[in-house]
Amino acid sequence: MNVAGERSFAAPREEVWVVLNDPASMAQTIPGVDSFDVQDDKHWSAKVKIPLSLGALQMTMKMEKTEERRPEFAKLAIKGSGVGAMLNMTTVFTLSEAGGGTRMDWEADVHIAGPVGSMGQRVLQPIVNQQVEHVLSALDKQVMARAESAETSAPKDYGEPAKSSAETEPPAGSSGAEEGVAPLAPESYEPEPEGPTTSTES
Known about the structure:
The protein has helices at 13-20, 23-27, 121-153; strands spanning 2-9, 33-40, 43-52, 55-69, 73-82, 85-98, 101-113. It is α+β, with helices and mostly antiparallel strands. A hairpin with a 2-residue loop joins strand 5 (73-82) and strand 6 (85-98). Helix 1 (13-20) packs across helix 3 (121-153).
């Protein structure tokens, strides 16, 4: 079973790339996740519940990033096992810049074996489509949340600093009296003579 499509994001390509390659972010996009474990930057695993017409199918899924060309292309191989089903899936996505935002072209090749697989594509196709739409919608929310976080954390431009006055001020700790300037009157003054003075009056 092969499914493909495209999705547009109102965010820079680098932001979309980071979300697609961040295990914590991707864990938020997978429906029915019970647990998510990261072995390293190329190997993840998850336990999920996939809704079927006869009940939920519990599967353990192992994901491996097999190829990447940052920030435009990545390929994942996913293997799942559960009671009554074996899943093998290969998915690729390509990111391209589009008018200030990002366009993602994606494709997934899905193979399901076991009793669940015998239900046929007519039954499984709507389920796969529903899961894909859930992932894409959740991915869009993750991308927008990251873009908003990056915007609010960016340093703000408050313009040029205020220009200082051309008038000089006395050095710190100085009253100005040492330079012959009265503290309360900026004009120069002559100090009064010290000691007794002789009057010229008779």
